[in-house]
Write a structure and sequence with these properties.
Number of strands: 3
Structural class: mainly alpha
Number of domains: 1
Helix content: 55-70%
Order of helices and strands: HHEHHHHHHHHHHEEHHHHHHHH
Strand content: under 5%
Radius of gyration: 23 Å
Oligomer: single chain
């Protein structure tokens, strides 16, 4: 079995089209998109389109919103949490034989992304932490023990707790020397569960889920691209991606999106020869003293690199929106006005960097589900299943990655333009304000392509 998280795009240097053509081609697509928006999109449209929804049939509403279905899915999800926590704690130490690393990093972290994008924010019913809290609340009400959260969630905190927890998860995955170590994952699961349940206990289930539960915030943002959403107690269908226009000015949202983008960017950077050589040169003196010290230095370097990439994403965005404000002649800060344009880019980065890992490594779930602890079981007769490592060719992966990056950044331009024509008094000011956003999108695209091609 291949090592967990050992992913890349293979031999893209042998593509029939020179790599520089991809750079120029992506930049030209963005420029043409910008000009088309300038000529054909003089007024805001997405907000109006987002309001044009169509409820699902009543029979579908009854099934999908049924308390029984929510209870069954929540119980199954909580059972999976218990299983993963148990396998990580007492299962085989090898990540290739333990169910927890593949489930956490591949099935959960990567596999749920296309699910929420296609079907909407299903995490609201799949979250094991919310399911357990809801069950406790139901038992409490049934026994006549009413419970009120002792604290009101401070509005000034916004999504900062979720951003910090997402950063911690990214640091475990990308900075720690043994991210697939089942014992390390067990500690992470227990700590995250304790923090989440304590937050719900202190501030209430809804408040902590909206602001402090990192995965709930992550999936809710990506689910805005879905054609399905729950509104006013019913599920409605809408045009895909129009929900991305929804404005959210909660503090910490930029930090959260910067972690989403910056962590994936650092994952790509950490696989380049440039970073590998840089890291090796700085850890070499420490390795002469002890391997443990070298590991510590390496972890600290990775942590610093991760933090720098996140800061670069945030600073680049803030510079772009400040330039947009100055060029457009506005007097009010636009720091939160164009945050929606970062969501499709974060989604594009996730698809470009990880879809091949999901397809290849996800196949290992079949044998692992029959022997989750690595004890030699064969519960479902799939323990001997072998994945098809040639399911994707390097060229197919590369073209999907390029397509995802370009599509995500074009969508980012569309969202930013629609927001600009709504904010500025004249179409000329709106278009002028988007010059900086165009530069930002081109920079993000070219950087993303370089990171993918250099990994």
């Amino acid at each position: 079995m291949t090592a967990l998280l050992a992913h890349g795009i293979g031999g893209i240097k042998d593509l029939p089209v020179p790599l520089w053509l991809f750079y120029y081609g992506a930049a030209i697509v963005l420029l043409v998109s910008f000009l088309a928006l300038w000529a054909l999109w003089p007024r805001p449209r997405l907000e109006r389109l987002n309001e044009k929804d169509r409820p699902l049939p009543s029979w579908a509403q009854r099934i999908l919103l049924s308390p029984a279905l929510r209870a069954v899915l929540g119980a199954a999800s909580f059972g999976l949490l218990v299983l993963v926590a148990a396998t990580a704690l007492v299962g085989e130490r090898s990540p290739n034989e333990n169910f927890a690393p593949t489930f956490i990093y591949v099935i959960f972290w990567l596999g749920l992304v296309p699910v929420v994008v296609v079907f909407g924010n299903v995490w609201t019913v799949l979250s094991p932490w919310r399911a357990a809290a809801d069950a406790v609340a139901w038992v409490s009400r049934s026994t006549g023990l009413a419970w009120e959260a002792p604290f009101t969630y401070p509005s000034r905190l916004g999504r900062w707790p979720a951003a910090l927890l997402l950063f911690a998860f990214a640091a475990l995955e990308l900075a720690y020397s043994e991210p697939s170590n089942p014992r390390a994952l067990a500690l992470a699961v227990y700590l995250y569960s304790a923090i989440t349940w304590f937050g719900m206990l202190a501030f209430g289930r809804d408040a902590w889920t909206r602001n402090g539960e990192a995965f709930a915030v992550y999936f809710s943002l990506l689910a805005r691209a879905s054609p399905f959403v729950k509104r006013y107690g019913r599920i409605v269908a809408r045009l895909p991606a129009v929900g991305l226009i929804e404005r959210d000015e909660r503090p910490g949202t930029l930090a959260f999106l910067a972690v989403m983008l910056g962590s994936v960017a650092f994952d790509g950077l950490s696989r380049t020869t440039l970073w590998v050589d840089f890291r090796a040169n700085l850890t070499a003196p420490a390795s002469e003293r002890s391997l443990a010290l070298a590991d510590l230095v390496g972890v600290l370097l990775n942590l610093a690199g991760l933090a720098v990439m996140i800061c670069l994403v945030a600073v680049a965005y803030l510079l772009a929106v400040e330039a947009a404000r100055r060029v457009g002649g506005g007097s009010v800060s636009l720091a939160t006005a164009f945050l929606c344009s970062l969501i499709p880019i974060a989604l594009a980065y996730a698809v470009a960097h990880y879809f091949s890992l999901l397809v290849i490594q996800g196949q290992y779930a079949y044998p692992l589900v029959s022997d989750p602890f690595g004890f030699g079981w064969d519960l479902f007769g799939t323990a001997d299943a072998r994945p098809d490592l040639n399911a994707l060719s390097p060229n197919v992966v590369w073209y999907v990655q390029v397509g995802a990056l370009i599509a995500g950044h074009v969508m980012g331009l569309v969202l930013a333009h629609d927001r600009a024509v709504a904010l500025f008094e004249t179409a000329r000011s709106a278009v002028a304000s988007q010059y900086a956003m165009l530069v930002l999108m081109v920079a993000y695209t070219v950087t993303g392509l370089w990171l993918l091609s250099s990994g």
